[in-house]
Design a protein that fits this description.
- Chains A, B: GO terms for molecular function: DNA binding; single-stranded DNA endodeoxyribonuclease activity.
- Chains A, B: Cleaves both 3' and 5' ssDNA extremities of branched DNA structures.
- Chains A, B: Keywords: Cytoplasm, DNA-binding, Endonuclease, Hydrolase, Nuclease.
- Two copies of one chain form a homodimer.
- Chain A is an alpha+beta fold.
- Chain A has two domains: 94 residues, Protein Yojf, Chain: A (Distorted Sandwich), CATH 2.70.180; 116 residues, 3-Layer(aba) Sandwich (Trna Endonuclease, Chain: A, domain 1), CATH 3.40.1350.
- Chain A has five helices and 13 strands.
- In chain A, the strands form two sheets. A seven-stranded antiparallel sheet of chain A has the order 4-3-2-1-7-6-5, with no helix packed on it.
- The first copy, chain A, starts with a strand and ends in a 7-residue tail after the last helix.
- Chains A and B meet through strand 1, strand 2, strand 7 and strand 8 of A and strand 1, strand 2, strand 7 and strand 8 of B.
- Strand 8 of chain A pairs antiparallel with strand 2 of chain B, so a sheet runs across the interface.
- Chain A binds a DNA duplex through strand 4, strand 11 and helix 2.
Chain lengths: 232, 232
DNA sequence: ATATACATTTCGTTA
DNA sequence: TAACGAAGTGTATAT
């Protein structure tokens, strides 16, 4: 990893064209060849960058300024991805051997929500019981297949944030499932759209299609499961 | 901007829990308080981070190790976002005054594609003429509303990459538009799905629904518009 | 390799 | 401010 702090100008041409006027920025050159251009603010996203695999060629302009040409080794759709960095004044330049990173361990995303709801289907609707998780269909698995108190089949789609495409997904499942004669005997399959947060447009679309919406309290569910399991 | 290279362990608790075992990494502390933890690889996304606004408190453990506690000042949904960084060995530590960045100038995204197609609708289908851009409907604007040589209305949905959700979106528009008596007089509204690249599954779905697919050559369109406008 | 869905998505624009 | 859609999205997973 090489870290350079320098006054620089950056031009990118590839899937789009972008330009950064001359200013002081931080440049990270990772060992896989990727380059990140960071300013002192914004979020974790660099102002500009080049994704690996790519290569950096150091040259000089006619005026003797240092120029880096970063080219992608995997140009998408024939577009030649190129990042040109013109260095005017270098304030800092250091290299560091970091070794390979052991990587990130995550916990708490959609899969966990699905596990918790599979254990407590009654929190979605009274009397709901689990038939199976990841119920397979031709177009992909339904998150939860359940049965309600009246014996009707219920397909549950789980999202962290419930948006319109989630409703579309569940709609496709329901369309397919309601062609299955094994499931359609007891009044067909109805749907429940479950999420920690459901956007208004998604709710409107869901309810318009007869799909029930359920807002899920992740922390409460986790409390039901194991009240001691916190990181610190 | 402070840059630290150090052997460190990172724990995050907030919307999820995440853990990074002890290893050498690059830590960027931006002047808005945000923190980025980068490894020597991957993409531009850090292994872990804290978005601004947030604050860093430096402390020490019982064993005398340096510890940074980064807390978000805008916790989302009541979740207390916290990042704890335990520093074992510092290889590099420097601070730099970058000033404010003039910012990025972009060109070439979906909006531009829409402008170009609005100027040259004939490239989508022979004899196609523009009625209006951003044609308003109850569920959002249709990218282009056109009329074909036979006088039939044509709704055009434009995407950079044509995927299944774009077809769904256009389908919803067509469903709604075909309820409008003003538009349905001349054989209803048909659809064109235009993109620089159309994924096979999206194409199958579109054609199954009677929606025409059009692959758009952005560079050629831009050439029609202004052949001299290239960056380098 | 391709397709699909998720993301501590982030980043705009608009109502 | 909230919501909605795009992103040079990236990333993991299953096909």
């Amino acid at each position: 990893m090489r870290i350079v702090v320098a006054r620089c100008q950056v031009d990118y041409a590839g899937r789009l064209s972008a330009h950064l006027p001359m200013a002081t920025r931080v440049l990270m050159l990772k060992s896989d060849g990727s380059v990140l251009v960071h300013s002192d603010g914004g979020s974790y996203k660099p102002l500009n960058w080049m994704s690996p695999p790519c290569s950096v060629r150091e040259g000089a302009t006619d005026e003797g300024q240092i120029e880096w040409i970063v080219t992608s080794k995997a140009p998408s759709k024939g577009q030649p991805d190129t990042l040109r960095i013109l260095l005017e004044e270098i304030h800092h330049d250091s290299s560091h051997d970091l070794g390979i990173d052991p990587g990130l361990q995550k916990d708490g995303v959609e899969k966990h929500l699905q596990e918790l709801l599979a254990e407590h289907p009654g929190t979605l609707a009274d009397g709901l019981t689990l038939v199976r998780r990841e119920y397979p269909t031709a177009i992909g698995p339904v998150d939860l297949m359940c049965r309600d108190a009246g014996g009707q089949s219920v397909a549950v789609e789980i999202k962290r944030r419930g948006e319109i495409d989630g409703v579309e997904q569940l709609t496709r499942y329901l369309e397919l499932l309601n062609r299955d004669p094994l499931l359609t005997t007891k009044g067909g399959v109805r749907g429940i759209f479950a999420a920690q947060e459901i956007k208004p447009q998604a709710r409107v679309l869901a309810e318009d299609r007869g799909i029930q919406c359920a807002v899920v309290d992740y922390n409460a569910l986790r409390g039901l499961d194991d009240p001691t399991d916190r990181l610190f």
